């Protein structure tokens, strides 16, 4: 995993990843995933960076569903985060 993220962001992300273990992922389209867990269902669009739980687009940070989808695609989690969560941008600021 890349270490571009700030330490705090990285810890939050790892905690979210832990919760993902039991989620069921189905690829709907190239960037669209259906995530099922505990009787609920969400749709994640990795291209638009949206999820039907609304956390992804409001936090500008992947929700646990988006992380599951990213893992399924072997996508770097950091590419889904807004720039201000990344270490390099903080140094530049
Ligand atoms: Zn979500």
Automatic annotation (TrEMBL):
Key word Zinc-finger present: yes
Domain of life: Eukaryota
Pfam families: SWIM
InterPro entries: Znf_PMZ, Znf_SWIM
SMART domains (UniProt xref): ZnF_PMZ
Keywords: Metal-binding, Zinc, Zinc-finger
Protein name per UniProt: SWIM-type domain-containing protein
Span of domain SWIM-type: 42-74
Signal peptide: none
A single GO molecular function term of this UniProt record: zinc ion binding
